[in-house]
Amino acid sequence: MPTVAVVGTQWGDEGKGKITDLLASRADVVARYQGGNNAGHTVKVGGDIFKLHLIPSGILYRGTTCVIGNGVVVDPAVLIQEMDSLAQKGIDVSGLRISGNAHVIMPYHRLLDKLEEEMRGGGKIGTTALGIGPVYTDKIARNGIRIIDILDREAFSDRLDAVLKLKNAVLQKVYGVEGFTKEQIMEEYLPYAERIRDYVADCSILVNDAIDRGKNVLFEGAQGTLLDVDHGTYPYVTSSWPTAGGIAAGLGIGPTKINKVIGVAKAYTTRVGAGPFPTELSGPVCNTIRERGQEYGTTTGRPRRCGWFDSVIVRYAVRVNGLSGLAIMHLDTLAGFEKVKICTAYRCDGKVIRDFPTNLRVLAGCEPVYEELDGWPEGSCAVKRFEDLPGAARAYLARISELTGAPVAIVSVGRGREETLILEEPFS
Ligand code: IMO
Ligand code: MG
User: Fold this and answer.
1) Ramachandran region of residue 369, left (φ > 0), alpha (ψ -120 to 50) or beta?
2) For a pocket test of ligand 1, which of 272, 296, 329 has the largest count of ligand atoms closer than 8 A to its C-beta?
3) Ligand 2 centroid to 5 CA: how many Å?
4) How far is the CA of 223 from the centre of ligand 1 (A)?
5) Superfamily of domain 3-99+201-260
6) With 90 as the cut, is the pLDDT of residue 331 above it?
7) Contact status, residue 52 vs residue 224, Cβ threshold 8 Å
8) What letter would DSSP give residue 72?
9) Top-level CATH class of 103-196?
């Protein structure tokens, strides 16, 4: 009856969707605690591919309660679209619950996301332009609008009076664009509020009750450790706390209630958006990984930057998340190279460092120190048991575990649910 968290250990897109989907089959409750529709979680079920941005992947199992916690930011138009498109595919969404305290993405957040990026010029962060940074900024600045506010016409109207004054001043005076009227926003958002009203609940009570009753609860992280606003490669990060530390605040549970934390890592490294990336590759190896791994953004379609596995990063993720185990994804994508490389440390100003530097200028100057290992043949990962993997692939995984300090609990050898080797069952 444990609770298990799934978090990203790299720059997002590690395959958290597949692992949460897998573990959701054992879970009674699946809860998201941060981020918004900047996440893109792809799950392959039979012949169908589901791309989820906001609703926890657990929704694909009938009877699972799926929670959008207070730490998540909600674009209601996207949420409703996602609910409708799941329903069209015959998926029951009646188990969805949304925290009344979650903040709502408004049209001015999306506009400000674009305008701020334009203003940054060459220093662009490369955001998803979905309003994530601006909505979290407003939350912290106490200018936000929550789900409970839009459910109450009067409260909504009062909040908009207070907030639009500030927002319109910035839009008009700083950016020279037109602002928004209260009527325009209410006309769009009040119908959204009616659509989601029945799904809104006190999710802190819901999750705590489930834990107290001994249910299996899964915490689904979005983004990754290096996109964490505190622990990531700031400022090239998202505006929330994807690390395990974000779970308690983002759901209203105590940290003592988190039993296990599984860190998801690709067998290599990718990144979308700007910022330093020590093991980044270019040329044929990068192209092979990108094409085989289908490394294009789920949310924005952008080609992902690709590089070798960086154990400095994942060792850092083991530390800041207190990882109990690793899920190593895309082992099959790396198959077919004669040799593969793992970054074991960085060389920086003539010194070898093993701890991930969060100073970007230092990180940008770091050269990876590589260890070369034997590759494994193409097609050799299509196995049902870990023992049947080629020796070189098992040696690669063992080295990852040794270098990062966390056991490998799960290995993914393909996109499908069944293409997964479980070495250690997290819900046990
Ligand atoms: P999943 O959950 C990969 C990146 C953006 C950008 C930075 C800030 O699919 O792993 P934002 O719009 O969040 O303000 O953008 O964060 N980013 C992600 N990269 N996977 C994600 O989510 C991401 N969500 C945000 O590309 O560099
Ligand atoms: Mg993604």
Assistant:
1) beta
2) 272
3) 17
4) 6
5) Adenylosuccinate Synthetase, subunit A, domain 1 (3.40.440.10)
6) yes
7) no
8) B
9) mainly alpha
Q: Is the CB of 8 under 6 A from ligand 1?
A: yes
Does 56 sit in the ligand 1 pocket, CB within 6 Å?
no
| One-letter amino acid for residue 219 of the chain | F
Average pLDDT over residues 340-345: 98
Q: What is the pLDDT of residues 106-136, one digit of tens each?
A: 999 999 999 999 999 999 999 999 999 999 9
pLDDT at 1 over 80: no
Cα-to-centroid distance, 240 and ligand 1 (Å): 10
All residues at 6 or more sequence positions from 240 whose CB lies less than 8 Å from its CB, including other chains: 34, 35, 71, 73, 132, 136, 223, 228, 229, 246, 250
Domain 265-422 has CATH 3.30.360.10: no
Q: What is the mean pLDDT of the chain?
A: 96
- 41 as an active site residue: the answer is yes
Model confidence pLDDT, tens digit, residues 31-57: 999 999 999 888 888 888 888 999 998
What is the mean pLDDT of the segment spanning 365-376?
A: 98
pLDDT for 42:
84
Boundaries of every domain in the chain? 3-99+201-260, 103-196, 265-422
Domains 3-99+201-260 and 103-196 share a fold: no
133 lines ligand 1 (CB under 6 A): yes
Both structure tokens of 118: 């334009």
Q: What is the pTM of this model?
A: 0.96
